[in-house]
Design goal:
The protein has twelve helices and 15 strands. The radius of gyration is 21 Å and the shape is globular. 40% of the residues lie in helices and 15% in strands. The longest helix has 27 residues. The termini are far apart. α3 packs parallel to α9. The chain has a seven-stranded mixed sheet with strand order 2-8-7-6-5-3-4, with helices on both faces. A four-stranded antiparallel sheet has the order 11-12-15-14. The structure holds D-malate. D-malate binds next to loops.
Length: 394
């Protein structure tokens, strides 16, 4: 038998597993060190009251003969898809049809799984730095990848160059890892490019709820022409603290047709074959957080993280460390002081400040010399981490 040799072309460990391993080793040698984690984007605020109430109520229902739910629809329960459609209408004035929405266990899985519907010979464009999932899932399948540099010169927002040859284009806005976000004009240029070239944009909108600037769209479907060239992936992980609860959704518009076939139908076929849906209690909790009361509760948490980001931005400004993000995003992308390389600064911060960040080079060559901080820790830890950083590097 033969194994998939493409796996030999990816890093041996996933970036965040590598960081966790280094931290574990450090802790084994330095018992009692008080570490502050600003590395992986995991949240710290507990689930909201609406989410918890819905989970309990649904679990109780499941314990009764009348309320029991077995296999659900692979695409997600209608009550949740309607709630998601309503969310798009209310937050962006965008009409999404219920049969275009696919409920999933999170954006990460769908961003990889969607590749099932595309040929292996398609060329893939990603930005550099980039969320490693886009690259690794395509390398696993053996696809060719072209990288678009995101640098301080282009504001970390690469634009399509007329010579670009790409069938699949990944865009993430607000961006992970840089925190930079495309405004309407720039996103329109990407949509026009994709429509003119027959490309498909895989749009990761996982951080949309952090947008406060009205010029930054929260969905690619707010852009004219996007329904014929884009698929959007979104998640309740950061918006509603569902990193452990697991729920996201993917939108494949009916107007997206390639080779004469509706991609929505292909994705439905794929999901009904390989996926059995998200659990009923989790879908009830997801629907609850998107209703008025639930939304007000989760937006308080988003505001809390945004205030953390503001505190961090203040510190980095004081230290005169160039950075981007932190405004419409929970991530701050910071230039390492004294021309340090990313992993060197990661180690320095770990040992001297006991603060964990993510080395920028782990997101791609253009990330070398940068690190990423998340604003998802508690307020006290954020203040303490910034105090330590100012004392050591100020
Ligand atoms: C990150 O830290 O980049 C994200 O939390 C990872 C993820 O969402 O999978």
């Amino acid at each position: 038998m033969k194994i998939n040799k493409n796996y030999q072309n990816i890093e041996e460990t996933y970036l965040f597993s590598e960081i966790a391993e280094r931290v574990r080793k450090y802790m084994a040698e330095n018992h009692g060190a008080s570490l502050i984690k600003m590395g992986i984007g995991d949240v710290t605020r507990p689930l909201s009251k609406s989410a918890v109430d819905a989970l309990i109520k649904a679990a109780e229902e499941m314990g009764t003969a009348e309320g029991f739910h077995g296999y659900g629809p692979e695409q997600g329960y209608e009550f949740l898809r309607d709630e998601i459609a309503d969310y798009y209408q209310r937050t962006s004035g965008v009409k999404i049809f219920s049969d275009e929405i696919f409920v999933s266990d999170g954006a990460k899985s769908d961003l990889g799984n969607i590749l099932d519907i595309f040929d292996v010979d398609n060329v893939v464009a990603v930005t550099d730095p980039v969320y490693p999932v886009y690259v690794d899932t395509n390398v696993m399948a053996g696809r060719k990848i072209v990288k678009l540099s995101a640098t301080a010169e282009n504001g970390f927002l690469p634009m399509p160059d007329p010579d670009l040859q790409a069938d699949i284009i990944y865009l993430c806005s607000p961006n992970n890892p840089t925190g930079a976000a495309y405004d309407k004009d720039r996103l329109q240029q990407w949509v026009d490019f994709a429509n003119a070239h027959g490309s498909v944009i895989l749009y990761d909108a996982a951080y949309e709820s952090f947008i406060s600037d009205p010029d930054i769209p929260r969905t690619i479907f707010a852009i004219e022409g996007a329904r014929s060239c884009a698929i959007e992936f979104c998640s309740l992980s950061k918006t509603a603290g569902f990193t452990g609860t697991r729920c996201g959704y993917t939108i494949v518009p009916g107007g997206l047709v390639r080779d004469g076939i509706q991609l929505r139908k292909m994705w439905l076929r794929r999901q009904t074959t390989k996926f059995n849906g998200v659990s009923y209690p989790v879908q009830r909790a997801a629907a609850a957080v998107l209703k008025d009361q639930g939304l007000a509760e989760i937006m308080e948490n988003v505001a809390y993280y945004k205030e953390n980001a503001r505190i961090m931005a203040e510190t980095f400004s004081e230290l005169k460390w160039p950075f981007t993000g932190g405004k419409n995003s929970p991530y701050l992308w910071v230039k390492c002081p004294n021309e340090m390389r990313s992993w060197a600064f990661f180690d320095d911060l770990l040992v001297r400040a006991n603060v964990i960040c993510t080395p920028g080079s782990g997101f791609g060559d253009c990330g070398e010399g940068y690190v990423r901080f998340t604003s998802f820790n508690t307020r006290d830890n954020t203040i303490e981490a910034m105090k330590r950083i100012r004392e050591i590097y100020g």
